Amino acid sequence: MVKPQPRSAPRPAASGPPPDPVTDRRRGWLVTALIVAFMLVNYADKSVLGLAAVPIMGDLHISNSTYGLISSSFAVLFSLSGLVVGFVSARVSSRVLLVTLAAVWAVAQLPVLFVASVPTLVAGRVLLGAAEGPAAPMSMHALYKWFPEDRRGLPSALQISGAALGTLIAAPVVTWLITAFGWRSAFAALAATSVLWSLVWWRTGHDGPYGHEPAPGAASGADPAARLPYRRLLLNGTVLGSIAGAFGAYWALALSQAWLPSYLRTQLGMSPGGAATLISGVSAFSFVLLLAVSPLVDALNRRGVSSRWSRGAPQGVAVAVAALAMAALPFADARPLLLALITVAFGAHAIAFPLHYMTTAAVVPPAQRGAVFGIVAATGTLPGLITPYLTGRLLDSAPSQGAGYTHAFLLSAVVMLACGLIALTAIRPERDARRLSPEG
After folding, report:
1. Closest C-alpha to 186, from 276, 251, 269, 260
2. What integer pLDDT is reported at residue 386 of this predicted model?
3. Taking the CB of residue 8, how many other CB atoms lie within 10 A of it?
4. 417 to each of 22, 342, 421, how far by Cα in Å?
5. Rounded distance, CA 266 to CA 288, Å?
6. What's the CA gap between 53 and 232, in Å, rounded?
7. Chain centroid to CA 107: how far?
8. Mean pLDDT of residues grouped by 10 in the chain (440 residues)?
9. Buried/exposed code over 390-407 (b: 16+ C-beta within 10 A; e: otherwise)
10. What domains can you pick out in the chain, each with its CATH number?
11. Is there a contact between 98 and 38 (Cβ–Cβ < 8 Å)?
């Protein structure tokens, strides 16, 4: 007896072309908006410690090195969790992953509300880092499920712009909370914001239809679920160059989040509000760059310009330019010039973040994209573990804080320039896609 078949079987959300392009396009942009908000909260959570650095150090009577250790503790599990969750993403939906991460962010803000001490700050930052390590790669992975390969420039830029918006909006708001109600109030407000986002995402966030399209550069008729050895994927020039670009950009970001507010207040004599305004200005500069460059990348791709020049070169150049501005910081005397250099040094690198995901995605099969994004992010974000503590040590060991910041800026410039040049020369997506294809 033939077993009757079901009347209709639901099509997996992540396979094949969308059944209703208009509806799915609208849902894709709604998901994009939610992911921008996700990244906004993400970077506000990261920035709150730096914005509260001066009152925290004063209230708890801690040294620069101890504060640097607290800041670096954020990265203890950051890279490892990004790596682990990247592999988990092949089996768990983006909806579940992102709501779990945001819920843990809320929990991570709670310890310091009960006991304000170095151990509770460290515990909260370690847990927060574990939950934020996968945030950028997994939210980008979720975003890519809603857009085809040649339409990802603007969505990618908007996703990364959540970081700029996080600082642009959070810096004045969090600073106001710290000034008006004490620094712990900012932690409480961010916990509540993370819970609110989780509830909205759980109701609205779903996986899109582009999760298993054939890999870029794959032969016609290739299996969309085809996999390659991770050793081959990770040791090609494009992925290594993308990691270098991310490493250099994240070095500037880690230095900015941990020490820029303190530098502006202690070395430039700015008020809390003035420092927050300048930090927001740096973020606005990053935001403008992101919105200008990434759509241009999509347009160049559609016109047939090589990805090496449309995606690889801009990220290498951006990190290198930021490095040169960082190197010039200690030697600038005129106030307007100094502020301009700060803006470029801590803002120009931002375009490397969406572009390094795009160049990586160009050579990686979609079935392995989440895992490779996790690996790239885990490696590229290692400066978060190194930079804050190293800077604190430089400040404590130098004859003056001014000399310590000079050493930190020059060291940062060297690292960033080397990373930018590696990205500029190593990223060649078309060449590496051919080498990785079964017929290459």
Report:
1. 276
2. 86
3. 6
4. 44, 16, 6
5. 29
6. 43
7. 21
8. 43 43 72 88 84 87 87 81 79 86 92 88 91 83 78 74 72 87 90 93 80 48 61 85 92 90 90 86 85 75 78 89 96 92 93 82 78 79 85 91 94 96 91 72
9. bbbbbbeebeebeebbbb
10. 26-215+229-436 (1.20.1250.20)
11. yes
Angle 329-350-126 from CA coordinates, rounded to 5°: 95
CB neighbour list of residue 255: distance below 8 Å, 6 or more residues apart: 346, 383, 387, 388, 391, 408, 412
CA 392 to chain centre: 23
Q: Are 283 and 270 in contact (CB under 8 A)?
A: no
63 backbone φψ class: left, alpha, beta (φ>0; ψ -120 to 50): beta
The pLDDT of residue 311: 80
User: Which three-class secondary structure string do you get for the chain?
Assistant: CCCCCCCCCCCCCCCCCCCCHHHHHHHHHHHHHHHHHHHHHHHHHHHHHHHCHHHHHHHHCCCHHHHHHHHHHCCCCHHHHHHHHHHHCCCCCHHHHHHHHHHHHHHHCCHHHHCCCHHHHHHHHHHHHHHHCCHHHHHHHHHHCCCCHHHCHHHHHHHHHHHHHHHHHHHHHHHHHHHHHCHHHHHHHHHHHHHHHHHHHHHHCCCCCCCCCCCCCCCCCCCCCCCCCHHHHHCCHHHHHHHHHHHHHHHHHHHHHHHHHHHHHHCCCCCHHHHHHHHHHHHHHHHHHHHHHHHHHHHHHHCCCCHHHHHHHHHHHHHHHHHHHHHHHHHCCCHHHHHHHHHHHHHHHHHHHHHHHHHHHCCCCHHHHHHHHHHHHHHHCCHHHHHHHHHHHHHHHCCCHHHHHHHHHHHHHHHHHHHHHHHHHHCCHHHHHHHHCCCC
Would the pTM of this model clear 0.85, i.e. be above it? no
Q: Are 283 and 380 in contact (CB under 8 A)?
A: no
pLDDT in tens, 125-152: 999 988 888 887 788 888 878 887 667 7
Spatial distance between the Cα atoms of 428 and 432, rounded to a whole number of angstroms:
6
| Token representation of residue 314 | 């801009």
Q: Quick one: residue 92, left, alpha or beta (phi over 0 = left, psi -120 to 50 = alpha)?
A: beta
Contacts of 438 (CB under 8 A, 6+ apart): 219, 222, 226
